[in-house]
Design brief:
The structure is a homodimer of 750-residue chains. With 750 residues, the first copy, chain A, is α+β, with helices and mostly antiparallel strands. Chain A contains 21 helices and 36 strands. The longest helix of chain A is centred in the last third of the chain and has 21 residues.
């Protein structure tokens, strides 16, 4: 099999800003390779989606055949697509990109030919000629000789199937999908339209994080026959003898009213001529079937497949063009723009075209003013994604903060890991605080900061039993840390997140003139020191009696095995994660020299995990110390080169809704926001010769930020000199305000 | 366990006609024992229902425990209740009475206490103190100390649960039920109201006979908690480890939007005080949830349990009082009124209070003018039920015929075994023809007889491939009989039904002046002679080459084992079933004497099956022959006494929506319509001294029909003399018109 990165001719897009960099006239969109991250557990996918769109249409290839290397039901599996799999069972509608738990990925739409089969273990097909570009995916089903193509609007999908002559089918499978939740209903509204609901949820095995997706599906040709199917429950004895459908998929050939069940679907059969194209539209909503229809009618009204695709590509190119790069290799540009593409998938809009959305943890339907965002993987994205959005897409970041505050209004809590109106409580900490504080301190302030402060103060101070976000707040508040009360309670990880959140909160309190609060939370943020074990030189869990946990192995947890006190990692992955008090941590560790040596050892001894969040800003910590900045430059360039590639395995692990991609973006353009909540960046060596970030003048008072790099040779790695706004710069950490006001950041390498 | 036949004090019913018979002042309703027929495969049930009501609320005791003797999943089982079972798992809403295939019996409502369990294998309870009377059933759940009571309006049910102090629950199980069809959706509309849909169908294993039931359930107390449950599909491997609900019933404690699946339910938990009563209302519709709510709002508006019950009892007493009997034993009165009660359950209304109903084999919703009836088990009921309705409930019979004609308008075919808008095609023949002809010939003529004739002519003459009702019409029309083309194709049974239908059609053609048609169908109705085997003296299947089927055993099929040519019976059960040409059959069998001797042998040698329809009019055939009428009188009395009792096994087999019960009714009052379609009755010995049938004067020109019997002693069995309208009567077969005009039929026994 050969996947083609589609170099789409953009004849219809002449109005778009043309990418001037590199002299080749290519558009940013042409540098996106949606196959990057589709193996190596990157969990991205090559499906069609619009920027921050609700809808994505993704080739689903993770079930139904032993020929697949990765089967969703045979292992822990969190993505609808795997590059090395080969058995296609349809297009899933509405999917997550770059997450670590299975969810969504349902409404499976499959074209077949010949005799009708509705069993996905039978009807799947191998494929070839995969092509993907933003807003487009295509393949060719070798079993059926059907070319399939998909595209999307923000809330709807469209598939175009090119059939051979004969009997052809379109199947909609509601029984399977990536989600572990089952149950759906379906109704045939007319010969060419079906509507229904599929239950989703149980994300990261939170059994109550349940929500429905509503849909309307339409085909543009009258079928010769159609109906439903449902897997029948197995019977025994006499009953089984009498019922030929017992345990099988039964076809409902005459019944047309609502059908419901765990494993149901719809089929449409057509007589097709050679090369005949049938288009299938899918509108969705998280509010109602009526809204799904309204979304479909609004966004695809009068548009055929080609027009929908042209629109999607225009949206992407506009968004990607906010950062224009020159220099660098074709590979680097592809890594860069694909990373930007991945970063713009989530959070995505939740509201329908009429503004309705399902309120947070509620049965109410509300109407939003502006976009309502969902899919907040905040334990990941608070580290860098929102900082990138603040700088480059401030209108979206501001609206995301407003969405977070609306969640507080509706639910009483800021989000932790919000998914389609459900608080899934995945991972730990209080990550909304640094996101909102960072946004405010950088100057995006058109939201109710008093309400935000109230919300933050609530989770920071309420007792644990009443505290959804900080369930171990009793210990934390009374002891200054969280002791290990259960073998695998991730207590150290929890506390480290609280320290960072409290530090952010202290910055905001200070900015709001709440001196006492500021001091209180700042002091609390230094409680990390409790965990430092001189014996091991790392953080170490503390037992309820105040003693360190023993026996202790700081490398335990390296390979995702359970580890007392630490979540998804070993003590080394966490022991430098005090970004708000790096100097204090260094003192604790014996001063600059031991700190630097130990930190370097983390990289040299393979104790650095590039695939998970706690240590991803380790490389930047060197730059806190005069004379050690070269190590930041060396490590960020080394990590970029080693882990970020124009290849399916070109992301080191779960992209985490763009967090890994954003790590690459910032480090490729020369600065990184290493302390969430604190409006500062650490500077490092860019890979491009010139980067132009198109700024929103109303927000930043300037229409661009330029990063220029003079590179004596292709191997030049280290920064020799820097200028900001034409003035020499000798510090390697600068504030957001300095950067914006400087306007041009110039690196001269050596 | 002791079941009590509830002698309900009818203080609220003083306006009702008081039953004058027997001198004890008891109302007819007080003679109904709903436990009759609830074992011995009578398949009746003791649940609460109104006459011809859509709703019935039935104690469901056929699943979930090995303590039950009859389990719905362990064998062929067609009724929600069995007298000898002991494990109660709730009340099923909308049920069939007296049928032989499992269907309906869903929306299972169960009260429990203590810790919440939603697994029916766990939450069921033994019970005691069963009580039942028309419109009422009650028991006491010994495990929970909960008294349960149910009643019904025509389209809604109500349950009253008397709880002990503590935590109490109301469960609605949509995953189980008598139907073999699965799938439901459910939505909590408010703290006290749920709505949803359950899929029903696959009646008698017709896989396409599928229809939905919609419902709205309301409780009259605010629960302290509520939610859904759904059985999770079993997972394997890592997934199974991560999901604690894997393969179990998961509780959905916060989700409140639609849920759907194969095995779902709703729970409501209450804090109850000792003796606290909670009422649960259930409205249903076969059109929509909105109509289910409308039905509930209309029929139970402002009414509590007691008022609903009083209404139901009033309806029953009014209907049962159309026949008043005097004399006879208490047992005989109980058998009689219970039989009348059973006969008035089906066909039942299908339309909602706004007149809407699902059109026949269609997705359309239509509005009926007058009642739209459903549940036409016509292979059974064409024999006597519709004749009883014509005489005593002519307004209903007329409306049933109109419903049948509307089905023809909607679907193109008169019904065969219609069930909630589906033609299930159960059993054989063309049974609408004798029903409609019988009705017309007796004088109920306010329907479109030309359309009816068109419909009958269609099924009687269309080729088999186009003929839904007579699939073997090609053979039948060309040969005059149906040869055996498959081992168990029931070919003789099919043909015998066609002969009877054709005879009826010939009578109608004659009445309509269509002489040629009349002669044609009459001649065809005599084709039964092909099947007569002199060798065996019975009917015998014929092979396609014209030879009789060999080897042949006329007793094969006695015990419901498959039998070539005959459906549910042996050759003996069918060989006298030519009611339209008894004398011709007698000639074929060698004349009166051999005929009578052979017929008597059927009874004497145990070749008569009292539990299935083909031979149930055998006893009346004696009366076609002068001097042999005493045999009819003897056998009908003997069969009544042997098979119809005031006991749970007091019906000889499936009641067949009242057919067996109607057999008892007619024979107990002294006449029987032994030739469907032919407006004649055979007279036999009544068991009562006086029977007053209150006639509709507008229909019959008289307000009553009186049957008086002088009985020299209690043992008097045979008829010595008869008078009709004061004139001596010497014939034992009289026409319907003679009977009505006579006004009083007097028997003097010896």
């Amino acid at each position: 099999m050969k996947r083609i990165l589609l170099a789409y001719t953009l004849s219809a897009l002449c109005l778009l800003p043309v990418f001037a960099g590199g002299g080749e006239g290519s558009l940013p969109i042409s540098y996106v390779n949606p196959f990057i991250g589709t193996t190596n557990f990157g969990t991205t996918n090559p499906g069609a989606v619009c920027p921050n769109g609700m809808m994505s249409v993704v080739p689903f290839n993770v079930m139904g055949s032993e020929d697949n290397k990765y089967d969703k039901d045979a292992r822990w599996w969190s993505t609808p697509y795997e590059f090395h799999n080969c058995f296609f069972t349809g297009y899933s509608h509405v999917n997550l990109s770059g997450v670590g738990c299975p969810e969504l990925g349902s409404l499976l739409l499959m074209p077949t030919t010949g005799e009708l089969s509705v069993d996905y273990k039978e009807y799947g097909s191998r494929y070839k000629d995969e092509q993907a570009s933003p807003g487009y995916y295509s393949n060719f089903l070798t079993r059926y000789n059907v070319k399939t193509e998909v595209s999307a609007t923000p809330r709807t999908g469209v598939s175009r199937f090119t059939f051979p002559a004969g009997q052809s089918h379109v199947l909609l499978n509601l029984g399977e999908g990536l989600t572990n939740e089952t149950g759906a209903f379906l109704k045939q509204v007319s010969d060419t339209e079906f509507e229904g609901m599929k239950l989703l949820g149980t994300f990261c095995y939170n059994p109550q994080a349940i929500f429905p997706i509503y849909f309307v599906m339409r085909v543009n040709k009258q079928p010769v026959s159609s109906g439903y199917w449902k897997k029948q429950r197995p019977m025994t004895g006499v009953e089984a003898e009498w019922d030929p459908d017992n345990g099988h998929y039964k076809l409902y050939t005459r019944y047309r009213k609502e059908i419901a069940g765990d494993d149901i679907g719809a089929f449409l059969t057509f007589n097709t001529t050679e090369g005949e194209q049938i288009e299938v539209q899918m509108g969705v909503s998280f509010v109602s079937i009526e809204n799904a229809r309204l979304n479909l009618d609004t966004e695809q009204s009068g548009k055929n497949f080609s027009q929908v695709l042209a629109d999607a590509r225009m949206r992407w190119n506009e968004d990607l063009s906010r950062i224009l790069v020159e220099g660098g290799t074709e590979e680097q540009k592809t890594v860069f723009y694909t990373a930007l593409y991945h970063t713009l998938i989530h959070p995505n809009i939740l509201q329908d075209v009429n503004g309705q959305y399902p309120a947070m943890e509620s049965n109410e339907i509300l109407i939003t003013n502006g976009d309502r965002y969902t899919v907040f993987s905040l334990w990941d994205t608070y580290r860098n994604v929102h900082q990138l959005l603040t700088l480059v897409y401030p209108e979206r970041q501001l609206q995301m903060v407003r969405s977070m505050l609306d969640m507080y209004r509706e639910h009483g809590w800021l989000p932790k890991w919000e998914l389609y109106g459900r608080e899934t409580l995945t991972m730990e900490g209080d990550p909304s605080i640094p996101v909102i504080v960072d946004t405010w301190l950088k100057g995006l302030r058109d939201f109710d900061i008093d309400l935000a402060y109230e919300a933050m103060y609530k989770s920071a101070t309420l007792p644990g039993t009443e505290n959804l976000l900080r369930p171990d707040n009793d210990d934390y508040m009374s002891l200054g840390y969280v002791p290990l009360r259960e073998q695998y309670d991730n207590s150290v990880s929890h506390a480290l997140e609280y320290y960072i959140a409290d530090y952010s909160l202290s910055l905001l309190a200070e900015a709001l003139g709440k001196k006492e609060d500021a001091r209180f939370f700042y002091n609390r943020s230094l409680g990390y020191k409790h965990y430092y074990s001189k014996e091991f030189g790392t953080f170490r869990p503390i037992l309820p009696d105040g003693q360190f946990y023993s026996p202790f192995n700081p490398r335990q947890g390296e390979n995702f095995e359970p580890n007392p006190g630490f979540h998804e990692g070993c003590a080394w992955n966490y022991s430098f994660y005090v970004p708000h008090d790096v100097k204090g941590l260094a003192r604790l560790m014996g001063g600059q020299k031991p700190f630097i040596e130990k930190l370097q050892r983390v990289f040299d001894d393979g104790l650095y995990d590039p695939a998970n969040e706690p240590d991803i800003a380790y490389a930047h910590l060197f730059s806190y110390f005069k004379g050690e900045e070269w190590r930041t430059q060396k490590e960020t360039q080394r990590l970029l080169q080693k882990y970020f590639k124009n290849a399916p395995d070109g992301i080191p692990g779960n992209d985490d809704t763009g967090t890994m991609s954003t790590w690459a973006i910032f480090n490729m353009i020369g600065f990184y926001p290493d302390c969430p909540g604190d409006p500062y960046y650490t500077l490092t060596t860019p890979v491009f010769d010139k980067v132009v970030i198109r700024l929103d003048p109303d927000t930043w008072g300037s229409d661009k930020l330029v990063i220029e790099t003079k590179r004596p040779s292709a191997e030049s790695l280290y920064i020799r000199e820097m200028e900001l706004g034409g003035k020499k710069l000798s510090r390697y950490r600068i504030s957001h305000e300095e950067l914006i006001k400087g306007g041009t950041l110039r690196f001269i390498l050596r």
